[in-house]
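> example.struct
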């Protein structure tokens, strides 16, 4: 028994303090705003789930992570699917929650329309199908929002509940390095087979990754709208796709990244009645944050290293002193730490293996520096 307990403890663990969050081969349910002074490292098949903030009908699921260094890899997942604005339910609130909530079906029949964030939600089927929710938010600004809920299917009274939207997920820092991992904020499907009028799917949520340097390889990012439900009379409208934003101010490398923000298809109803429609495709924006135009290495508030690539001795130049510099490898492990008292100093990197490293200052105003060692 002692051996089994020890094996369980070493197979996965979670560590969190004011400096760092480490999740290794484990799962964590989390919501709200989390700021760490040094780093976030999620690795080895770990899973983060966005918690619905309060559990109330109109509550939303959102997660904001900030640290100078964020490293996510080894088949890890952050999932906020179905945790956004709630779908319409009960006769007291048949319309979907949120600024783009789908309308419920008409009193005399009709399926609920899909919610919206990245685009318009699809309309419901039958003679009095509910309208899809209208798109909201800006595709290219520095905010991110949740997906709205789909409307309820209604035949005099509510008979099927709308799907919830996807959550809001944002990550920001100096350096964000993601490999072989998945982010999801998909909308929920409308209910199927519950009554004669189906409900609408929830909209995909929002994902924003914002850093000076963004490096992503073999990554899947999903903000897909939920399917409209199927019913004997009116199918539900599909939820719209959500919004994906990748913002950088210094360096971007997104090799082999799959972005998906498709709208959900409309549900199936009686072929003799008007059909439901699919939700719109969401939006994907990859670029510099609004207002930033100068991306050259001559900008102030940067760390400069020469030569680069380097072998052993490097000259480090900064505009802000004194400053504490931490050097990490590409897996997020702290390799060296030193304090600069002068604008230009020499650092000895002998003994380090060849590869890619990053120098990050405790002062968040300094942009990180990528170093290639060729020893």
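> example.seq
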């Amino acid at each position: 028994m002692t051996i089994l307990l020890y094996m369980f403890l070493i197979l996965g663990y979670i560590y969190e303090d004011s400096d760092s969050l480490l999740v290794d081969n484990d799962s964590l349910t989390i919501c709200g705003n989390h700021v760490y002074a040094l780093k976030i490292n999620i690795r080895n098949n770990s899973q983060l789930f966005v918690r619905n903030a309060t559990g109330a009908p109109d509550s939303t699921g959102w997660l904001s992570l900030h640290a100078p260094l964020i490293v996510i890899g080894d088949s890890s997942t952050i999932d906020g699917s179905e945790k956004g604005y709630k779908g319409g339910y009960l006769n007291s609130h048949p319309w979907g929650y949120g600024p783009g909530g789908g309308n419920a079906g008409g009193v005399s029949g009709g399926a609920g329309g899909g919610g919206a964030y990245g685009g318009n939600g699809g309309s419901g089927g039958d003679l009095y199908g509910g309208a899809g929710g209208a798109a909201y938010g800006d595709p290219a600004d520095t905010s991110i929002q949740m997906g709205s809920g789909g409307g309820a299917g209604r035949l005099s009274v509510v008979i099927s509940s709308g799907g919830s939207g996807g959550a809001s997920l944002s990550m920001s820092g100096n350096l964000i390095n993601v490999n072989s991992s998945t982010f999801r904020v998909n909308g929920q499907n409308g209910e199927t087979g519950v009554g004669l009028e189906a409900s609408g799917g929830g909209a995909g949520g929002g994902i924003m990754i914002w850093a000076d340097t963004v490096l992503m390889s073999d990554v899947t990012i999903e903000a897909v709208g939920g399917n409209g439900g199927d019913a004997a009379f009116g199918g539900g409208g599909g939820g719209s796709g959500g919004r994906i934003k990748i913002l950088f101010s210094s360096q971007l490398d997104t090799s082999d990244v799959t972005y998906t923000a498709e709208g959900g298809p409309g549900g199936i109803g009686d072929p003799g009645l008007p059909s439901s429609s699919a939700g719109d495709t969401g939006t994907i924006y990859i670029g510099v944050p609004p207002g930033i135009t100068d991306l050259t290495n001559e900008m102030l508030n940067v760390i400069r290293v020469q030569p680069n690539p380097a072998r052993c001795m490097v000259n480090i130049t900064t505009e802000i002193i004194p400053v504490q510099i931490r050097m990490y490898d590409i897996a997020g492990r702290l390799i060296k730490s030193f304090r600069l008292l002068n604008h230009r100093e020499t650092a000895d990197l002998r003994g380090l293996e060849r590869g890619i490293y990053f120098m990050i200052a405790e002062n968040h105003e300094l942009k990180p520096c990528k170093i290639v060692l060729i020893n």
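> remarks
The longest strand covers residues 243-260.
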